[in-house]
Design goal:
heterodimer, A: alpha+beta, two-stranded antiparallel ribbon, 21% helix, B: alpha+beta, 2 helices, 5 strands, 19% helix, 25% strand
Chain lengths: 90, 116
Amino acid sequence: MPQGMFKSRTLRRVAKRVPTGTSVIVYKQRKPRAHRCALTGEQLHGIPRRTPLHLAKLAKTKKRPQRPYGGVFGSRATRQLLKEEARETR
Amino acid sequence: MLYDIGTICVKIAGRDAGKTCVVIDTLDEQYVLIDGQTRRRKCNMLHLEPLNERLSIQKGATSEAVKKAFEAKGISCTLTTPKKAKPKPTKSAKQSVDASSTPTKKEKGKVSAKKA
């Protein structure tokens, strides 16, 4: 019977075979879901799926793409925005 | 042609996205050479949005000439120079050490014990 704290579904269960030959359950932390574009909802690239503890240790350039609206809007949405802005100034 | 020499464009892709540039040279049907607020480089025409304005520059104009032309239009540009690779430090050959001159660990231990 697992301990109360391990019954939580915020942990994921991984079956692992030990050297003695038996299988044990190892409880691991779940990764956060991938970030999504605020306009289109598509998955964003260049943003690691890490918990805040691990993200804080990364450099700023490793957490989002170096582009306007990087980490907020996707590349497709950003291109459309910039095109519309340029056409308004024409 | 839409992307003639002197056409002012806005870059819509890459890390220079949103910046104004001018077409300096047409390389083939797909690529042009750009300069201005962006880095001086080859660029795909699909990554540019042309504006109605034009600059009077020659084919293959230098970055300084492009900067002057932009400033006449009221657009500020900074001159960027490409990074120069630093020379790698060369390792000097290690000097040969005589085995008899350096004390061994046992001898070092004996000396420290005597001092104590």
